[in-house]
Amino acid sequence: MTTTLENKEQDKAKKGDTKELDLNELKKSLAQEEAELERLKRLKRLKQQEEKTSEISPTEDQPMDDSKIETDKHERKNMSPQELRDARRYYWQQKQKEEERKKKPYNHFPSFFYAGFWFRLFAFIIDLILIWSINRLVVQTIFLLLRLPLNDNDFSAYSLSKLVVYLLYFVLLTKATNGQTVGKIIFGLRLISFKEEQLSWGTVLIRECFGRYILKTFPFIYLMVLFTQEKQHLADFFSDTAVVSENLIRASKLSLE
């Protein structure tokens, strides 16, 4: 009898423990579900607020109505500090993007579309080899036929002739091909403008004539490409231009199609 009573008491104790465990697990699961629902509600409110800030945000030509301002203030009161910070951050990011697009209305690409230092260096070396060949075959031959001195001083006729060939090569080819030289064609690069769809003579002359002369005089300025976001050097900043990978642009267009 005593053993049966003890067994019954043990069974009752086990049942009580399982009930307590079930209740604890149920409470935990309910708490997790409530936390997840709260998180989803918060994300939904944040998304709605972002949409409303983009719709309600005032522009220069269209001021906000008083009713919209009141509703915006009321909604801000219901938001948590973190949600307000996120909404403000999003608003200022969008505003900066709009201002950037106004300054640079054309040819916006991701940062990895811009050609890096080494590709541009190899393309430039190929262009220098071609320019050296032209000077050797044309300029030097003319000077030899005319029996003029092949003097390499800075302001001699021979040096100035080589400089003219150097600048004309970049100016004429860049304008004729809308942003490419032989080196750029080989490596799939192209010069683009942030303010024009097609490169104008003004842009080409600023970059490929005046800019090239400065870069030829001070070659270390090319190193700016390593430290700028859009891989620009001094001549690019003057002319609002950059060099991009044409292969990546073609691939992105094909993927969109």
UniProtKB/TrEMBL annotation:
What's the chief localization of this chain?
membrane
List the residue ranges of the region (Disordered). Answer: 1-25, 47-81
Where does this one sit in the cell? Cell membrane
Cell membrane: is it a keyword of this entry?
A: yes
Topology of the protein relative to the lipid bilayer: Multi-pass membrane protein
Q: Where is the RDD domain?
A: 114-239
Q: Which UniProt keywords are present, listed alphabetically?
A: Cell membrane, Membrane, Transmembrane, Transmembrane helix
Q: Where are the transmembrane segments?
A: 111-135, 155-174
Name the residue ranges with Basic and acidic residues bias. 65-81
Q: Which PANTHER family match?
A: LMO1584 PROTEIN, PROLINE-RICH ANTIGEN HOMOLOG-RELATED
- Protein name according to UniProt: RDD family protein
